[in-house]
Amino acid sequence: MSESVVQNYTVEGMTCGHCAASVTEELEEIDGVVAVEVDVTTGSVTVTSEQPLAEADVQAAVVEAGYRVV
Amino acid sequence: MSESVVQNYTVEGMTCGHCAASVTEELEEIDGVVAVEVDVTTGSVTVTSEQPLAEADVQAAVVEAGYRVV
């Protein structure tokens, strides 16, 4: 049986579904990420992964999408 | 010498650059459109075309992108 790691972040600057899609797409490229959920209204981003992620990788993915983890 | 038609519309609901890109992309698919300029802050969309466009085509393109001409 495999366990998942669920981690929540707050991302600043997302205003619409396109923003959510951009952030989701970049985060899903990180090795081990199996799911991403974004709530644009609150900036809440929940990442589910097969193993703990390096914070730097998560932050870099969000920046790559054009946003910032706060 | 060829003349261009420049028409301005106000589009509701665009919040970011992705929204602007979606609207621009759909409008550029209309036959004769040579340029689209979007100001997300005001909702102003300026379409330059080789000949006058059918209003229905413009509205349909904006709706296809997920927004509405007001």
Description:
The structure is a homodimer of 70-residue chains. Chain A is globular. Chain A is 33% helix and 33% strand. The first copy, chain A, has a four-stranded antiparallel sheet. The first copy, chain A, has a domain at 16-43 and 51-69. In chain A, helix 1 (17-28) crosses helix 2. The model of chain A has no long low-confidence stretch (mean pLDDT 95). Chain A is of the alpha+beta class and 70 residues long. The longest helix of chain A is centred in the N-terminal third of the chain and has 12 residues, at 17-28.
Major beta sheet summary of chain A: 4 strands, antiparallel
Summarize the helix and strand pattern of chain A as letters. EHEEHE
- Average predicted confidence as pLDDT of chain A: 95
Query: In what order do the strands lie side by side in the largest sheet of chain A?
Result: 2-3-1-4
Uncertain spans of chain A: none
Helices and strands, with pairings:
Two copies of one chain form a homodimer.
Chain A lengths: L4 E8 L4 H12 L4 E7 L4 E6 L5 H11 L2 E2 L1
Antiparallel strand pairs in A: 1-3, 1-4, 2-3
Helix pairs in contact in A: 1-2
